[in-house]
Amino acid sequence: MTTPLTASGPWVRRGGLDDWYVVGDRSAVLVGGRVLLLSELATVVVELVGESGLGLDSLADALGKHFGAPPAGSPTEATAEAVRVLVHEGVLATGDR
Amino acid sequence: MGHVTTGGESVHLTALGRPFVVEIAGSGAARLAARVRAAWSRCLDEGPGAARATSIPVYVDDDPALVAEARAAGSLAGSDDRDLMDALSPRVTTAAIVAGAGTLLMFHAGAVADPRTGRAVALVGASGAGKTTAVRRLATDLGYVTDETVAIDGDDQVVAYPKPLSVLEPLQATKSQLSPDDLGLHGLDARCHLASMVVLARDPARRGAPSLEPVATLDALAALAPETSSLARLSRPLHRLAGLLDGVGGLQRLHYRDADDLAPLVTELVGAR
Fold first, then answer.
1. Best CA proximity match to B165, nearest among B145, B189, B195, B142
2. What is the distance in angstroms between the Cα of B230 and the nearest Cα belonging to chain A?
3. Which residues of A touch B237 (CB under 8 A)?
4. Minimal-distance CA residue of chain A relative to B229
5. Residue B134 to chain A, least CA–CA distance (Å)
6. Cβ separation of B225 and A19 shorter than 8 Å?
7. How high does pLDDT run on average in chain B?
8. What is the spatial distance between Cα B196 and Cα B269, in angstroms, rounded to a whole number?
9. Using one digit for the tens of pLDDT, what is the confidence trace for B146-166?
10. Would you kindly state where each structural domain of chain A is located, as residue ranges?
11. CB-side exposure of B17: number of CA atoms within 13 Å?
12. CA distance B259 to B266
């Protein structure tokens, strides 16, 4: 079940990943029978979310500490957009904690 | 119903290390069985594993009603030997892939090996990429492993699958199933292990000798995944795939114009010279 992303944020967790393989600051995931290559940002998101998940606000704070302020918008809005893309690809899922 | 199920011939095969029995019934059973045995000569298996073989029922007859009845019962059925041979090959391969899911790392690839050492090179490519043509040329000097599916077991050994070569010939609607023996392809004296893995990149407009281009690990995973079977059924599949690549010096893209040009480079890859 997917919860709409809002600024206040839902709980973010990993999607149904069959595997995740990291090389340097990038990675690949196997999800839904496809291998997707993840950027540095996406790789850090998957790392931060971890096995137990993370609230969107907490994720935004952590990304801010790692990458600094986003070039546009608030950290939470930028994080929500990144999460939305990864949810669309099945890499992440959102819902209640 | 009795016409469909009585009598017939059994041809025992090993495919990707698993035993299968092609159970052929119908008025043309003896004739078709002889053709299957000839084409699948290097996969024949009458050993102890035959008793637990998975059945692949085939029915051949000139009577359309009996053929339809057999087909409805789940048999591969028809009246033409050539059509049935063409359909049997993917039927066996698919059954073997299903049986190997979860244990074997399987690629859409042909392979040849040094017959003495078993050092093999996998030639990865989608259907139509030139696997069979390349293997057919190369295995006149190197050992024939397979033209279709390269399977790696848990010990990182290549499970040889020397099936008939499936060749689409001019003016034919179906592929011919050519015995590697009839084609004069070399066999293998040793168990095979992967020494190199390449993705075929044939370019008819290319000039110059074939060349190899390294593919970075993550790009290799993305390139290989579509050419695998049941990858997600394995434990930590990307790690296993990356580990395999690490052991063979990574994936390389093989650029070439014509399969006739490949022998020197591929022979060097398997270390046969």
1. B145
2. 8
3. 18-19, 30
4. A33
5. 27
6. no
7. 93
8. 6
9. 999 999 999 989 999 999 998
10. 11-95
11. 21
12. 11
Four-point Cα dihedral B118, B248, B100, B123, nearest 10: -80
Average pLDDT, chain A: 90
Q: Which residue has the higher pLDDT, B49 or A59?
A: A59
Note the pLDDT of residue B1. Answer: 41
Q: Do A30 and B219 touch (CB under 8 A)?
A: no
Task: Give the gap in angstroms from C-alpha A7 to the nearest C-alpha of chain B.
Answer: 33
Query: What span, in angstroms and rounded, lies between the C-alpha atoms of A26 and A47?
Result: 11
Element (H, E) at B266: helix B263-270
Query: What CA–CA distance (Å, rounded) separates B185 from B175?
Result: 19
| HSE-CB for A70 with a 13 A CA cutoff | 16
Fold of A11-95: Outer Surface Protein A; domain 3 (3.90.930)
Apex B129 CA angle, B125 and B133, nearest 5: 105
The model's confidence at residue B50, banded by pLDDT at 50, 70 and 90, is: low
Nearest chain A alpha carbon to B216:
A23
Question: Cβ–Cβ of A21/B232 closer than 8 Å?
Answer: no
Q: Is A17 on the interface with B (CB under 8 A)?
A: no
**Interchain CB distance below 8 Å, B218 and A28:** yes
For residue B273 the two structure tokens come to 């010279």
Residue A21 in contact with partner chain B when CB distance is under 8 A: yes
Do the bridges between strand B18-25 and strand B54-60 make them parallel or antiparallel, or are there none, so unpaired?
A: parallel
Separation between Cα atoms, residue B241 and residue B231, nearest integer Å:
9
Identify residue A19 by its one-letter amino acid code.
Answer: D
What number is the average pLDDT over the span B180-186? 96
Nearest Cα neighbor of A56 from A4, A7, A15 is A7
* ipTM of this predicted structure: 0.89
